[in-house]
Amino acid sequence: MNNELARWREAFMARVASPWYVETLFDRLPDIVFSVKDKQGRYVSMSEAAVVRCGLKRKQDAIGKTAFELFPRPMAERYVRQDERLFNTGKPIVDNLDLTVYRDGSAGWCLTTKEPLYDNQGRVVGLACISKDLIEPSRAGLIDTGFADTVDYMLENYDQPLRMEDLARRAGLSQAQFERRMKKIFHLSAGQYLIKARIDHAARLLASTALPIADIAQHAGFSDQSALSRQFRQVTGFAPRQYRQLMRPEGME
């Protein structure tokens, strides 16, 4: 994006009177929960589906409260651990499996993504969260705590060498069972899911930092720059340097 387009986009967004249109959009999606929290874990915004999920009568009843005031303690503790990881690292949490409790008291699983929110000085001040219900995989018994914890482990350690047989063992499954569940839920094999996590992280660093590409390869879990370049081009169609030039306006430090 060039400087002129970047300025046009920023000027347009500055003209929007209120950011709450985002909340209104998600109000129309009953199987997706949207929320915004500050760095102290207090809810700033919440979609209607989230209000229903918490058993509240109106959104105002959630504002200023924390997860411990709205969810069962084990769920709240898990959410807070995720949030603290995001605040400490500045890294988004993508496609995380979380247990949720529905209005009728039944339990199911959702796929959660959390993005950090920054102030004008580039400091993380909160997060935005989207969770999508996974009704069919939950009913089919494909997701349990062991499987979800293993996906957590992959997302937290994608920069380390990970063996599929070790991950399957961690989940209490055979390697074939583990692969089938990954494909059913994420539409990716376990190996593809791991590559996606690494490529996502590399793309964020290319777009937001001036780190040398060799250092980015190391941070993202690739053996060297050439391994990153090969996988990055295969997944995105761009060489890492081309992607950086596309995503960073000219002259951006």
What does this molecule look like?
Residues 148-246 form the HTH araC/xylS-type domain. The chain is α+β, with helices and mostly antiparallel strands and 253 residues long. The protein folds into 2 domains: 1-140, 2-Layer Sandwich (Beta-Lactamase); 144-253, Arc Repressor Mutant, subunit A. The chain is built from 13 helices and 5 strands. A 5-stranded antiparallel β-sheet has the order 2-1-5-4-3. Strand 4 and strand 5 form a beta hairpin. The radius of gyration is 20 Å and the shape is globular.
What order do the helices and strands come in, and which of them pair?
Elements: H1 3-15, H2 21-27, E1 32-38, E2 43-46, H3 48-53, H4 67-70, H5 73-89, E3 93-101, E4 107-118, E5 124-133, H6 135-139, H7 145-156, H8 164-170, H9 175-186, H10 190-208, H11 213-219, H12 225-236, H13 240-247
Antiparallel strand pairs: 1-2, 1-5, 3-4, 4-5
